Every structure is written in C-alpha cells, then in structure tokens.
Amino acid sequence: MSVLFYKRPDYVPKLPGPMSLTQSEIIAEKTHLSRTPIPAKLSFENIVQNKAQTPCTLQDFLEYLFYVSHDAEILQFWLWLQDYTKRFYADSPAEQSLSPPWSNVGTFQRTRGVPDQPPKSADKSRFGASGYNFGQQELSTTPRFDKPSFIAGTANTQWSWAHSSEDADGQVELKRQACRLLTLPDIDLSDQDPKLTSPAANQPHRYEIDRIISQYLASDSPRELNLPPQTRAAVLDALQHTTHPSGFSPVSDIVESTLRARSYPNFIRWSLRNVNEPRARFIRRISGAHVFLAVLMAFFLVLSRESRGWRLWCFPLLLIGLPVAIAAHKGICFFTHRSQSRNLRPWEQFSDAAAFVKSVDNDDDDDDAYSMADRGGNKNALLDPFGPSNSYDHELWVEAYRRKKWSQKVFARNVRVRDETLRSIQKGIVTQSWLWGALIGVSFMVLVLALPKAEVLGKHHYRWS
User: Fold this and answer.
1) What pLDDT score was predicted for residue 103?
2) CA distance 174 to 152
3) Which of 151, 247, 301, 463 has a CA that sits 20 to 30 A from residue 220's CA?
4) How confident is the model at residue 250, as a pLDDT?
C-alpha cells in the first residue's frame, strides 16, 4: 500500500452488553473488513509469546489492557488457560482419565468432537481455538447447573488440599464462602459429613480450577469476566464435572476472539503513539496556531493592495503547521520520532515512594525525578492469574501524576523504542504526514495566488485632475 494512503489499524469499540459468541462474530467480521494489515513481526502470536520488543511486549500489552482499556482480565484468563492446557496434557494418562472431556451435547453445539489430545495450531479456527461455530447460538437451551452439588464439591476440594479433615467447622465455612461467591443464599451445611468428598475432588488440578472459578467466573469475583448468564452457567456446569480444558470451551472462544479482533488491533494502534496525551495536545495547539496565522495572513493579503508575491510568506507557516498537526493527531511527535524514542507512560515515570515525592516537589525537573520505573511488583501482579482485582486507583503514581505540573507532563522523559517494525511504521506515518501537509499546503497556496486583489485594505492613491 502506498505510503500516502497508509492507515493505522481502526479503533474497535466495545459493543454494549456482555461478551458472547454472537458479539465476537460481529467484532471479528468488522475487524476483518476494516483493519489495515499488521506486519507479521507484530502478530498476535509474537506479542503473547513475548517475541516482540518494547513497546510491544507481552507486559506492554497487559499494561495497555490494565491502564487504558480496563479489561486486563481477558488476557490474564487466556494466558492462564493456554498454560493450563499444556500442563493438563502433560499429565499421565491415568490422571487425565479422571477428568474426561466435557461433551454435553444438549448444552453446546459443536462443529466437531472434543479432542482427546492437545489442539494443534492447524485445528484452530480463525478467531478461536476450540472449534466452535461463531455463526450458531452458543446455547440452545439453558444448561442444567446443580448448584448445591457444585458448592459442596468446591468446598470439599479446598478442604482436601488444606489437609485439615478434622476441622468440620472450617469446611462448613468454606462451603458458605462458595455460596457467597456464586451469590446464593447460605444453605444449612452443618449436618453434612465433614469427610464427604465429591468424585470431582479426585480430579487433577481441581483446586486450581476452583480458584479460577472464584477469580474469573463466579459473580462478583475479583476479575469477573463479562459473560452472558447462560454462558456463565454453562461453564460452571461443565467444571463441576471435569477439570478437562474442554470444560472452558464456552468461554475460550469468546475470550480469544475478543483479544484478536478488538484488544490486539487497539493495542497496536495505541503503541504507535510516541507521546502522551498532554504532549500531543500541546503539539496540536502549537501547529494549529501556525495554520491559523497562515490562513489569517493570506486573508488580509488578499484584501490588501500588495502584490501576490507577498502571499507566498504564508507557505512556510503551513508547511510547518499542517504536517505536525496531522502527525500529532495520530500521537506522533517529529522530534521524538527523530530520536527513536517515546514518552514514558504515566505509570512508568515513578519507581518508588521516594521518587513520587521527589518528582512532584522537584522544580528543576532533573533526570533522577523521572527514572525508569521498576515495575517488578506490578508486573508480577499483572501476570499472576490469581492476583488482586484489576484496579490501579490505589497505586501511588495516580495521585503523584495528578499533582505534577503541566510543563512536567508535556516534557516528560523519553525511552528508546526498540522494536524496529514499530519504528518503521512510525516512519511511514511521519512521511505520510509530510506528504499530506505539503499537498494541502500547495493546494491552498495555488488557490490564494489565483485570487485577485480585492484592494480593500491599504493606502488609497488619489489622482488629482
């Protein structure tokens, strides 16, 4: 595609309502029709496998979903599911036999049977991994979900992992916690046998599955996935019978298609920006002022008695203002791009509490105040599938960044862009901005030079008879 007509990946907005297979199909179709091809080196697979360089690493993807898109739980759950699938199929055949594949035909409409071995990349659909047909309704009937049995099985499994079979009161409390996770009223469980264990308790990874349920699938869980009620009930129904990865099939396709069709192109579009919003807003205002002065100057020169040659002085202002404004609209600063760098993101500009205080109170804006953030703790929290809820309101940098001076936000420190593919795309955007700016500027000057003198302004010369 010509550099002049290169277009960034289109922004894919979130559709109203919970995620569903039907919604995923709509997003995938719109993305397929409108998305500009993304280079293979920045493919979804390379990013999630951490093969790309900053600012397109897996950590950057997680931070975008966490701080900007506010739906990091989608990627966190998907990463865990990919790892869990590998670990499950690495178990011995005897352990796998305890968790047979979930094949409730009355609950789901499959396009093919449940695989008895790890799925290969060639078997994956375009936007999914489990072979579901996006064109069909994912649930023809409301699935049967035995809630009391599930609660008892969950609590008993946690009990067996805690190795505390003599504490009956503790097991009853675990069951009551399961009731609250599923937003059910507490039921009388005190008369149940504390040593009672469900068949699912002997299945491999049962404790981990129960934690995932309480973390992502149960109502009001810390990282609750925005799922339709039927899909949520379907996966809970499957997971009370098996820990096989096929039990997550109602959710896996929804999550992966959403990541590929919406989150991934939006992340690439956002990564192409090399300045933060304060700097971009500042550049747009400065470049807009240049364009406004050029138009105003051309207007008065046309109304004046001066020769057309004076109108050419408008062109330098247009040549500066138009390309810079076009690039700033896409989040690109020419000077930052020339140094092959980008602004530090707001959450990257602080490393610890001492840096917070120093950066806020420092009037000299020295280098130490904006040292590259040591995000080790936050990185571990984002990558941990059982970490806290995805909220950053409590993080110290939020208040510290809010208190920073406007000039400090505009002239924030830079860090090098190491991904060559991303730099090449940014170079194309810069070149495109110059070409479009020059084309619009020349067209405007041709029009201005073609206009006759109005001779409204300026000194009048009278001829005496």
Assistant:
1) 78
2) 9
3) 247
4) 83
